[in-house]
Amino acid sequence: MKNGVEIKPATGKLGILTPGMGAVSTTFIAGCLAVLKGIGKPIGSLTQMGSIRLGKRTDGRNPLIKDFVPLAELHDLVFGGWDIFEENVYEAAINAGVLSKDLLNEIKGDLTAIKPMKAVFDPAYVKKLNGTWVKKGANKMDLANQLREDIRNFKSTNNLDRVVIVWCGSTEIYLEPTEAHSSLAKLEKAMQDNDPAIAPSMIYAYAALKEGVPFANGAPNLTVDFPAIQELAKEMKMPISGKDFKTGQTFMKTLLAPGFKARLLGLSGWFSTNILGNRDGEVLDDPDAFKTKEVSKLGVLEYILQPKVYPDLYGDLYHKVRINYYPPRGDNKEGWDNIDIFGWLSYPMQIKVDFLCRDSILAAPLVLDLALFSDLAARTGMHGIQEWLSFYYKSPMVPENLYPEHDIFIQLMKLKNTLRHLKGEDLITHLGLEYYD
């Protein structure tokens, strides 16, 4: 065991702000309150239910992660956010239709008290929505300053020690980095000039970092994945991470594809389609927004399978992804996968997967973990891209010139080894010295 890293204690209250207070955000907030009242369990949350092995297997040291590193406690969390509709969290949760009305009624008073602040929104970036609870400003820098004031007011009103922001808003239209994204100075000028290259999510990220608030991006938007924001994150010594919560179909791919690769089974095709009917499905019905999601979902197999390293197995893989808006499905997304594999002597086989998942139920614990781990990173002095949080994302951010790791088991090992490092524990490599005794 070595000396660990100095970590500031998680004293006081932690505010969690979510741009977007729809299905995912309200399910997350209601879930945390339900857990506190003893009417639910935080299933799926690594910070609440996960353990971590320390030392040798024979040592029997397997504390819960929340007992191993100093994380904010659920009773110290205060929730808030912004939305393009004025409904309070109870009303929004009822409309989302994810959680039962009986459960929501048990915490109705707490949920009703949480009201969204007016959002920064532009329908040019999310064409299928038309917000009514929206800020107005002279330019995008003015809007960022209004968000900064919101953050300061939220912090002072609730007597908070710290704040984190987790993007739970919609997928924006596909954008690629431009000159405006190349440096902080150019970004700020572009905001003053109302440059269309600056999407609303970027304004939130800029405002958060300027206020010394970590930012986690739960959508496939460009948001924090460009040099200017990364420059700001380093300047402010704040952690950023992203992008796109890994929930349904891509979650399954990061489970199955590593297994095929480990067994050296070939893949000739992987066809994926989704049907969903929530606000996310409506937004993704727009081709420009779908492209943003498609890019996020398509990259996972190439990076896991390494076709250039294994050309005989994966060099001719055909990978197709579709998303279909189907209102009757609601938040209960259905993901269908047809997987064509081949084995010994190239004999073909097929696998069919039909995952009837609850998208927001899978996403809610990710919001909690990202908020608590982002806060931990900030208190530890970790800043810039937090690659160790790749476990939570479809399209993980990495430093320049590195490729992202998509194998969920490697991602989890990296996350836990980061926690071991912070506390001065030996990293787990599974190279047991007993083989050489």
Name the descriptors.
437 residues, alpha/beta, Rossmann fold, Dihydrodipicolinate Reductase, domain 2, four-stranded mixed sheet, globular, disordered C terminus
What sort of overall outline do the alpha carbons produce when their principal axes are compared?
globular
CATH fold-type name of the largest domain: Rossmann fold
Number of folding domains? Answer: 2
In the CATH scheme, the class of the largest domain would be Alpha Beta
Helical run tally: 16
Radius of gyration: 22 Å
The strand count comes to 11
* Percent range of helical residues: 25-40%
H/E element order: EHHHEHHHEHEHHEHEHEHHHEEEHEH
Distance between the termini: 20 Å
Q: Label the structural class.
A: alpha/beta
In the sheet with the most strands, the strands line up as 3-2-1-4-5-6-11
CATH superfamily of the largest domain: NAD(P)-binding Rossmann-like Domain
Strand fraction equals 15-25%
Q: What characterizes the major β-sheet? A: 7 strands, parallel
Q: Could you report the average pLDDT, rounded to the nearest whole number?
A: 93
CATH architecture of the largest domain: 3-Layer(aba) Sandwich
pLDDT < 50 stretches: 433-437
Description:
This protein is an alpha/beta fold and 437 residues long. It has two domains: 294 residues, Rossmann fold; 108 residues, Dihydrodipicolinate Reductase, domain 2, CATH 3.30.360. Helices cover 39% and strands 15% of the residues. It has 16 helices and eleven strands. Strands 3-2-1-4-5-6-11 form a seven-stranded parallel sheet, sandwiched between helices. Strand 5, helix 10 and strand 6 form a beta-alpha-beta unit. The longest helix is centred in the last third of the chain and has 22 residues. The C terminus is likely disordered.
